[in-house]
Amino acid sequence: MEPNMNKYQIQLLNNISSHGLARLPTDRYTTGKQFEHPDAILVRSHDMHSMAIPASVKAIGRAGAGTNNIPVAEMSKRGVPVFNAPGANANAVKELVLAALLIGARNLVPAIRFVEQLAPDAADFEARVEDGKKQFAGIELPQRTLGVIGLGAIGALVAETALKLGMKVVGYDPEITVDAAWRLPSAVRKAQSIEDLLRHADFVTLHVPLLPATRGLVDAKRLAAMKHHAILLNFARDAIVDEDAVVAALRSGRLRGYLCDFPSPRLQPVPGVLALPHLGASTAEAEENCAVMVAEQVREFLDNGNVSNAVNFPSVEMGRESAWRVAIANANVPNMLGQISTAMAMAGLNIHNMVNKSRGEMAYTIVDVDSPVSQAVIGEIATIEGVLSVRSIPTPGH
Prior knowledge:
Blueprint: E1 8-12, H1 18-21, E2 29-32, E3 40-43, E4 59-62, H2 72-78, E5 82-83, H3 90-106, H4 108-116, H5 125-132, E6 145-149, H6 153-164, E7 168-172, H7 178-183, E8 189-190, H8 194-200, E9 203-206, H9 220-224, E10 230-234, H10 243-252, E11 255-260, E12 273-275, H11 284-304, E13 324-331, H12 336-346, E14 351-359, E15 362-369, H13 375-382, E16 387-392
Parallel strand pairs: 1-2, 1-3, 3-4, 4-5, 6-7, 6-9, 7-8, 9-10, 10-11, 11-12
Antiparallel strand pairs: 13-15, 13-16, 14-15
Helix pairs in contact: 3-6
């Protein structure tokens, strides 16, 4: 084991649920806010773009789904995986989207505000209530159409719940995985394009990550394609929606409402906007689930080199068949395996088992060998052009 004091040091940039930290055995791990040379970092919302990330860091774990607060590209160049917790907060977000659907359909927020402004000692209190309620008449959800853009863990749960409420559901996700497709209820109709979805939906909910391709995904042109008087829900990321275009669509009457989890000054005074203060994953259960999931992934990587749910690495898992293991992250270029194998053979190491996978420009290799691996060998592999990181991972006690 490489870390100081024979324990891996895990730096916490935010408060991480104790249920998650309990997954890091105290005989091999120590956690804290400040370490000079941490082996890994666990983070929730802290912005890491402006901080100096020590060279000792071998992994970063985000206790949540989005990784926009982490310099992923820089970590990829270092050969450092960035883990997240996709789906761990899915139920929490699904429930909030459901609440937003009901709030939007029944005009609950303006109705509540109306009641709060009534003078309690007015003689005509009841008459004002009866007269005022007419302006808040809403619609019921059954037979209305919900358009779901993005059909991952959260989008699939939202679609399933909407179907149980009697809604029709149309979905769009050109990047849907095989696993996600299996989870999706068969009653969800597949849209041919975003515009096709927007034309038919009474409600549209967004569940895509913020990427260059999704920034400004819902713009003025697409808002103009929406069904007249539809309601837009955004509990994904603020920048997926062009806020200026939303404001214009609300003021023109094209859009009936915009319900989101992202307050901003330009939205604050606009009628038809309901912005919540980032409540999507703000449940005790979601925080625990995210912390447990990401802590287990970081532990498995540090202990065994296995990778799952890293946003910048391929998923690679191999059961231990030897006490000595080497893990290598490298650029996905020809002859890397040949050079790695040659370096080990020249050092007299017999390869017991090996697995190699790639993802875009990144490749990752795990090698089990039959004898201890010296630091000289690790240094030799590290000098191979294209190798980003390499480490020896013996089992505890070796």
